[in-house]
Amino acid sequence: MRNLAKKTQESTVSIQNMIANLQSGSERAATSMQETLGKAQTGASNVVRAGELLEEIAEGIASISDRNIQVASAAEEQSLVAEEIHRNVNDINSLVIQVSAGAEQTAVTSRELARLAEQQQGLVGRFRVS
C-alpha cells in the first residue's frame, strides 16, 4: 500500500506540475496574444494613416500637374505674343525705312522746288513793268 500511496503522491505532484506548466503556458500565450493584438491594431492604424498620406501625396501631385499645364499654356501664349511683337517690330522697321525714304525724297523735291522757285524769281526779275 505504501508503494501505491507513494506512486499516487508522485503522480499527484507530477499532475500538479503539469497543470502549473499548462497554466503558465496558457498565461504566456494569452499575454502574447494580447501583445500581438495590440501590435496588429497599431499596424492597422499605421496602414490607414499611410493610405491617407498616399492620398494627400496623390492630390499634391495632381495639383502640381495642373499647375505645370497652366505654366506650359501661359508659356505658349507668351511665345505667340513674342512672335507677334517681333512681326510688329519688323513691320514698324519697314515703315520707318519707307518713311525715311519718303522724307529723303521730300527733301530732294523741296530742294528742287526751292531751286526752281529761285530760278523763276530770277526770271520774273528780268521782266519789269514800265
What does this molecule look like?
The protein contains 1 helix and no strands. The relative contact order is 0.03. It has 130 residues and is an all-alpha fold. The model has no long low-confidence stretch (mean pLDDT 93). Helices cover 96% and strands 0% of the residues. It starts with a helix and ends with a helix. The protein is rod-shaped. This is Methyl-accepting transducer domain-containing protein. Keywords: Cell membrane, Membrane, Methylation, Transducer, Transmembrane, Transmembrane helix. It is found in: Cell membrane. One of its GO terms (cellular component) is plasma membrane. InterPro entries: MCPsignal_dom.
Give the overall form: rod-shaped
Helical residue percent band: over 70%
- The tally of strands reads 0
Beta content: under 5%
| Number of helices, counting only DSSP H or I runs of 4 residues or more | 1
CA-CA gap between termini: 191 Å
Gyration radius, rounded? 55 Å
- Mind describing the biggest β-sheet? none
Question: In terms of structural class, how would the helical and strand content be classed?
Answer: mainly alpha
- List segments where confidence is low: pLDDT < 50 over at least 5 consecutive residues: none
Write down the secondary-structure element order. Answer: H
Q: What's the pLDDT, averaged over the residues?
A: 93
Give a topology summary.
Layout: H1 2-126
Short description:
The protein is built from 1 helix and no strands. By secondary structure, it is an all-alpha fold. It is 96% helix and 0% strand.
Annotation keywords:
MCPsignal_dom; transmembrane; 1 helix; mainly alpha; transducer; about 130 residues; rod-shaped; membrane
